[in-house]
């Protein structure tokens, strides 16, 4: 019985510091009211994307030829079956916006996952091994940074072919240098600290030093960068879709919806306004959330 009590006490002692860290994180994060609003709006968008098949009133690609360019329901000539109106081929705008959230979040998640995984691995290796590997890798990153990101993405998509998957690959390549440089700088700073020296003296291997000893202490700036890059990935994917190089019709991606609605800017305001608002509000919410994460994770931003 005493052994069981000892195990319970040890597990409680392990949980308590984590709970305390979470409370401290939420305290500093919640001080930024804009970040809290952004977090809840982002969670709302995630919920909408998950339940898109359930809550959308119509199929996103279903065409109602007798209801072409119907205005929103509250305007004269509107129909409550199509609350936000229809587009030029009679597709429900609300249903397309709801399903479009999936593509935007999917793009952001894939881009961040790829750039974080590859960028952090390359950056840590550059900061840990140094020498010729660091020089070659960082010069390649400098070359990528020297080219405007949207221009490079357009060139890569032109080579790979238009499509959402190729657009995500192109955006990932343009974001890669930011994570490589950030993780490399953090690794160089952490590598000189006493706890890394102690781990090395204790016999820790290079991979263990990189990914278990150093990496956890470099995560705070990387998390903030990932949050801000998430919104930028959504914007860039929408820009490529608007230029016809991203998701292809009839995919209900917000940027592609804007591209299809260009000729109706003056005659049917809703087909342009609602996709634009969806991009604006989602990116704004993620940026506000990123500011809150910076305040909560950066020790310099915390008050004693």
Automatic annotation (TrEMBL):
Amino-acid biosynthesis listed as a keyword: no
Domain ABC transmembrane type-1: start-end pairs: 101-290
Entry keyword Membrane: yes
Gene3D superfamilies in the cross-refs: MetI-like
UniProt entry keywords in alphabetical sequence: Cell membrane, Membrane, Peptide transport, Protein transport, Transmembrane, Transmembrane helix, Transport
Bilayer topology term: Multi-pass membrane protein
InterPro entries in the record: BP-dependent_transpt_permease, MetI-like, MetI-like_sf, OppC_N
Pfam family, one: BPD_transp_1
Protein name, entry field: Dipeptide transport system permease protein
Organism the protein comes from: Aestuariispira insulae
